[in-house]
Amino acid sequence: MTVAIMxxxxxxxxxxxxxxxxxxxxxxxxxxxxxxxxxxxxxxILIGDKAHRITLEVIGASSNSLINQVIVGSNRxxxxxxxxxxxxxxxxxxxxxxxxxxILENPEKNLAKFIGNSIQEISNYLKLNTKIIYSxxxxxxxxxxxxxxxxxxxxxxxxxxxINSIGGQxxxxxxxxxxxxxxxxxxxxxxxxxxxxxxxxxxxxxxxDVMMFNSVDxxxxxxNRYKLx
Length: 229
Description:
Blueprint: E1 2-6, H1 14-22, E2 25-28, E3 42-47, E4 50-55, E5 58-59, E6 71-72, H2 76-87, H3 93-104, H4 111-125, E7 131-134, H5 146-157, E8 161-165, H6 174-179, E9 183-189, H7 207-213, H8 216-222, E10 226-228
Helix pairs in contact: 2-3, 3-7
């Protein structure tokens, strides 16, 4: 079985979805510390011809809090208004915006579950069949840290292969994983571009941008544009 483990991110970029698509089980890493100024509750959308940061308001967030201890704030209507204004003329707007409304109007207050729900719903929209679970539901030694904790989760799930985003190359050792009989790979996203409005293409935006400008079939082709290292 192939597994990936990632923190829950707010409408992450397409590489996150490539990772979900390539594994059998995707673990939402919700019982690790919240990272301030990270992408757990932030991302970027296209406004005009530039990337613009959007932030989901959170309450009780600190570097001493676990992600699943943080509460969602009250700016979801404001976020929707901004998305509406930014993408009203996008080709997939009529289909995508009502879908995003349902996601952002979810009354769930727990940040991990709120984002987890959005990950599941967008996965369904993209027709991905990957099993998605929360790390907090897995019996493991929670005193372990970093790579050791990831290996513990892999062991509990019976994983024979673990795939991480390319940014994990400095965090995980193929040799250490091999000792535990787990193959380790890193997913590197190819350069993906598509027609936005009349602007020069702006890369590395939220999946919201990808969905607003591309059909599900087109996105599914993008999900295969990567290489494993």
